[in-house]
Structures are given as C-alpha cells and as structure tokens.
C-alpha cells in the first residue's frame, strides 16, 4: 500500500511538472509571436523573422502559436521573394529550416515545412549562377543534396536515448522502492531487478550517444 502511494505521488509530480513546462513553453511562444507581429507591422522583417522563429521553436503539440509562427515565416519568405528581396527571403526560409531542426526529436513536427524551405533555398542559392540550364539544374540538385543532410542525432537514436533515460530512472526507482528498506537493508530481489533495469537503461543511453 505504501509503495502504491509513493508511485501515485511520483506520477502526480511528473504530470504537474510536465504541465508547468508546457505552460511555460506556450507562454514564451505567444510572447515571441506577439513581438513578431509588432515587428512585422512596423516593417522590421529581420526582427519579425527572429521572433517568429523563437515562437516556432517554443513547440507544444497543438499549440496555435506554432502554426501562426510558421505562417508568419512563410509569408515573409514568399512576399520577399515576390518583391525581389532575396536576402529577406533566404533569412525567412532559413529560419523555418532552423526551427525544424531545433524542434526535431523523436518526431519531426515541421518536416513538410522544412522540405518546402529546402526547395526554396536551393532555388534561391542557384538562381544567380550560370545561365546554362543544365549547369543550373546540376547546381540545384547538388544544393538540394547538401540541404537534405540532417544534422544532429537521428530520430531512432533520440528514441533510444529517451528510452535509456526512462529505464535508468525506473531502475533507480525500483531500487529505492523495492530494493531497500527504510533502515537501509538490501532486499535482494528488488535491488538486483532495479539494478538490472538501470544497467539496461545506461546501455541504451550509451548506444544512442555512440550512434548520434
């Protein structure tokens, strides 16, 4: 009964911590988006892009500010291209690409936006080149190949890293709850079970770090 109460209390604390973190992320995203709106309205595209990128990075599933931030960045990019402002277009498309990488973990929430940004950047980076269509096509393909390379750990490695951390934490929890008495006496079954789970978690974390 005491063990169940401890587990229930631990889960409640975890839920409250996650809720607090989500609230903080959403609040920061909304503040950044409001700053982007003000910068955009006064014609300051550089700061509009900067704050919209910050809002996009403050990712929480389903949060409306993330969609609005991507829409703002895309509007600046497309509008700047149409106006011939290549520098601002590159800045905005690059911000979308950067936000996609910075929010990528086990899932890739901005994958489609990053794909569009990669195509646009490849086009913008190759347009000033040779007037020869074949040479430009080759340059575009090469640029797309370079942009397609994804920095950072793969999603599988990120998932393995997360699993390792969860298992290591669970193992320590088993040791604390089932492997030791209040007097500090070792209960062999719970202690070695928890230690084994902890070792598996450490192994998963190490493998994920190696693959990253």
- Compute the separation of the termini in Å: 42 Å
Gyration radius from CA atoms, angstroms:
24 Å
| Secondary structure category | mainly alpha
Tally of extended strands? 0
Count of runs of 4 or more consecutive helical residues: 8
Number of separate structural domains: 2
- Helix percentage range: over 70%
What is the makeup of the main sheet? none
Average pLDDT figure: 79
Fraction of residues in β-strands: under 5%
Choose one word for the global shape: elongated
Order of helices and strands: HHHHHHHH
Low-confidence stretches: none
Descriptive notes:
This protein has 212 residues and is mostly helical. It has two domains: 20-151, no CATH class; 156-211. It has helices at residues 2-41, 45-57, 64-82, 86-102, 111-126, 133-148, 155-178, 188-211. Helix 1 (2-41) runs antiparallel to helix 2 (45-57) and helix 4 runs antiparallel to helix 5. The longest helix is centred in the first third of the chain and has 40 residues, at 2-41. The two termini are 42 Å apart. The model has no long low-confidence stretch (mean pLDDT 79).
